[in-house]
Design a protein that fits this description.
With about 160 residues, this protein is of the alpha/beta class. Helices cover about 35% and strands about 20% of the residues.
């Protein structure tokens, strides 16, 4: 949640990235974020607060909290379960719709595999959903889908004067 505990989680991520860059060669154009449940909610917060740090986002079983406002189009893959009783599916649908609005991905959507729908956008930031019939779970096979999604996107360097 934005502002909670003086944004310590956001500051932690910022510091973690500084530390990783000091220890490893990091391709800043290919940093991604995914999370499950509370971590997925945080994924949406990172989109809202750090849109120029991460190339794409993949929340699994997430809602968008009222303090979170998506301002910049970013590729996102939202995974959710229609029988989720911890993060109600209606709340997940609201998050997906907020992502679609932020990305300008307002069309009908096209099937992209089992349980998968892709909403393209003119901004180049699609919204992909994987909606399964299960509850509050991290589906075993979804990591492959997330990695494949991430590989499609990178940050483009800002043009001079931008």
């Amino acid at each position: 949640e934005k502002g909670k505990d003086a944004d310590r989680d956001l500051k932690f991520v910022d510091q973690m990235l500084v530390s990783l860059r000091q220890q490893f060669p990091v391709d800043d154009s290919r940093i991604y974020v995914t999370g499950f449940s509370n971590g997925a909610n945080f994924t949406y917060l990172l989109w809202a607060e750090r849109p120029r740090v991460f190339a794409a986002y993949a929340p699994v079983a997430a809602r968008i909290l009222p303090s979170v406002h998506l301002k910049e189009p970013k590729p996102v893959l939202h995974v959710g379960g229609t029988a989720d009783h911890q993060i109600q599916f209606a709340d997940q649908k609201e998050a997906i719709e907020a992502a679609r609005r932020a990305n300008g991905a307002l069309g009908k959507g096209e099937a992209c595999g089992r349980y998968c729908t892709l909403y393209e956008s003119k901004s180049g930031a699609p919204v992909m959903t994987v909606i399964h019939g299960g509850g509050h779970i991290y589906p075993l096979d979804v990591s492959q889908t997330i990695v494949a999604f991430f590989k499609r996107y990178s940050l483009t360097p800002a043009s001079p004067g931008a």
